Amino acid sequence: MTEAPAATIVSAEEAEQQRRGLMLVLSSPSGAGKSTIARLLLDKEDNLELSISVTTRPRRSSEVDGVHYKFLDPKRFEQMREHDELLEWAEVHGNYYATPRGPVEEAIESGRDILFDIDIQGTYQLYDKMRSDVVSVFILPPSIAEMKSRLFRRAEDADEIIAKRMKTAVGEMRHWSEYDYVVVNDDLERAYENVRAILRAERLKQFRSPKIGPLIQGMVDDLEMELRDKD
Ligand SMILES: Nc1ncnc2c1ncn2[C@@H]1O[C@H](COP(=O)(O)OP(=O)(O)OP(=O)(O)O)[C@@H](O)[C@H]1O
Ligand SMILES: Nc1nc2c(ncn2[C@@H]2O[C@H](COP(=O)(O)O)[C@@H](O)[C@H]2O)c(=O)[nH]1
Q: Taxonomically, which superkingdom (predicted)?
């Protein structure tokens, strides 16, 4: 009897490569530590890149144009908005921020995961446009006092800007339950490991790799046929 060719999932890597990239969204009130966690993830995780936002906010001394943000004047920001070049945009703490559309669409079509450090307004817009691609994580500080002291220790913003950010925090924190996951950033290493675990598990959700289903079915069919032949 001629044996049917065995179906096989060639490798876990190949199965993984066939999937669409996912959009990992990190949000938090200012000072909870989402940018710090984002940096650790980007350092350690292959196949994960940052969505570099555009903003009209002035550059901080520690920031590099084109690496942390693309810094634009309000006129150029408005042009991008009018030309539909932005996937989402929002006014946050009195400045404009937005996600350029092109790099995100290119990454997820090519199976590369993309990390967003964006606020709740932007997250809602991504939910509206591409909910099944989005995995959202809300980062919480262990306490409001610690969040405030982190903002002062960071020493990047003037006191009145910190006061404005604390005010905005109230509205932002009310939306924590709209996120897929909540991670408390008390111990940085543990918080980072939790977000990493979320990313790794989400990559394996079966609906992200639609081609894996027929391969699994083929293996089951092969085994069934082999057992039937032996009977
Ligand atoms: N677990 C932690 N323990 C102590 N300090 C932390 C922890 N996580 C982050 N920090 C520090 O807190 C400060 C704020 O962190 P970060 O800039 O990542 O906050 P953020 O949520 O991105 O704020 P923003 O929205 O204002 O950019 C930084 O100085 C960072 O080094
Ligand atoms: N909706 C969007 N929000 C964004 C984007 N880029 C950053 N942000 C959020 O703005 C605040 C302030 O950021 P900061 O760098 O000035 O501290 C923070 O909540 C960010 O997550 C964006 O493209 N869209």
A: Bacteria
218, two tokens: 């083929």
Alpha carbons within 13 angstroms on the beta-carbon side of residue 198 total 25
Please give the structure tokens belonging to residue 157.
């913003």
C-alpha torsion 51→103→53→111, nearest 10: -20
Q: Is the CB of 188 under 6 A from ligand 1?
A: yes
User: Residue of the nearest CA to atom 12 in ligand 2?
Assistant: 92
Q: Is the pLDDT of residue 4 over 80?
A: no
59 CA distance to ligand 1 middle (Å) = 17
Kindly state the tokens that stand for 149: 């002291």
pLDDT for residue 126 is more than 90: yes
What does the domain layout of the chain look like in residue ranges? Answer: 20-220
Residue 228's SS3 state is: helix
Q: Is 77 in the pocket of ligand 2 (CB under 6 A)?
A: no
Per residue in 166-205, pLDDT (tens digit) is: 998 988 999 999 999 999 999 999 999 999 999 999 999 9
Look at the alpha carbons of 104, 108, 113, 117 in this order and tell me if their dihedral is positive or negative: positive
Please state whether beta strands 54-55 and 95-100 pair in parallel, antiparallel, or not at all (unpaired): antiparallel
C-beta of 141 in contact with ligand 1 (< 6 A) = no
Four-way CATH pick for 20-220: 3.50.50.60, 2.40.160.10, 3.40.50.2300, 3.40.50.300: 3.40.50.300
pTM for the predicted model, two decimal places:
0.92
What per-residue confidence (pLDDT) applies to 157? 82
